[in-house]
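Quick log. Single chain, no ligands specified.
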Amino acid sequence: MTQEYTQRFTEVHELGSGVWPDTYPIGAWNGGWSCLANHQRAFVLVSAGTLQFGSSLQVAVYEAEDGLGPGAQLLDAKYITTLTAAGGDSGSAVGIEVRTEELTPGFSYIQVRAIILGGSAEFSVMTLLGCSNYVPVATTRWAEIVD
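-> predicted structure:
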C-alpha cells in the first residue's frame, strides 16, 4: 500500500476518470466511474482556468455500486466550495481526498460531477487512485509515461 523508492509513481497510482481540460459552457459535466476495489484512497484534483465573468464552478464526488452508476448518490461532504469569477477564483487548484471507508457499504465506484452556472468555464478534473492493494496498477488511461 505504500510506494517504494524504486517504484514509478504510475505503478502505484492509477489514473481514474475525470473531466478533461477544455472550456465548457453552462451545464453539467460528468466524468466516468472509477473503481476503488483495488485502492484505499482517491485524490480528485480540480484545476480551474479562466472563469467567464459571472460564472461559477461546482464539483462534487458521487458514489455508486458499480460502473453503470446504479443507486448513485453524493458522497457525504465531498464537494468543493463554489469557485466564482467574482471571487477571483480563476487559476485555482482544489483537491478532494476520498478514503474507501467513507463509501457506503457495497459501493466501490466514484464519479466526479461538475456544474457550471452563469457563463463558460475553463477547467479540468482528474482522479488519481492510490494506496493500491496490488501493484503494478493499470496504465491504460495514460497516453504516454516518460520514465
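The first strand starts at residue 14 and ends at 24.
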